[in-house]
Amino acid sequence: MADEEYPGQTLVTTDHDEIRRWAEDRGATPARAPGSEYGDHLGRLRLDFPGYGGENLEPVSWEDWLSTFDKRDLEFVYQEHRKQGNESNFFRLRQREGGR
What we know:
By secondary structure, the chain is α+β, with helices and mostly antiparallel strands. The protein has one domain. 20% of the residues lie in helices and 23% in strands. It has helices spanning 16-25, 62-71; strands at 11-13, 29-32, 45-48, 58-59, 74-78, 91-95. The longest helix is centred in the N-terminal third of the chain and has 10 residues, at 16-25. The protein starts with 10 loop residues before the first strand and ends in a 5-residue tail after the last strand. It comes from Prauserella shujinwangii. This is 1,4-alpha-glucan branching enzyme.
């Protein structure tokens, strides 16, 4: 678990175990946006949270999701908790700082 200094703090990681733990703690599963794939590429990476309209997302394996994450040189930006202290589902993917 990441060491959050205060609720609402934005954290950043590239650690596969941390990303997977964060998602699984929230019941989220790896997915992609339908129609965004090209060739053998997954397309837009997403996480499917239960009860949040993920019926339009296509499930993928953690292995494929994390492999694509690495190939694209991404980092996982997220929060453990909101400012009010309750659990946060906020995340986004971005190019790694100083990346390619």
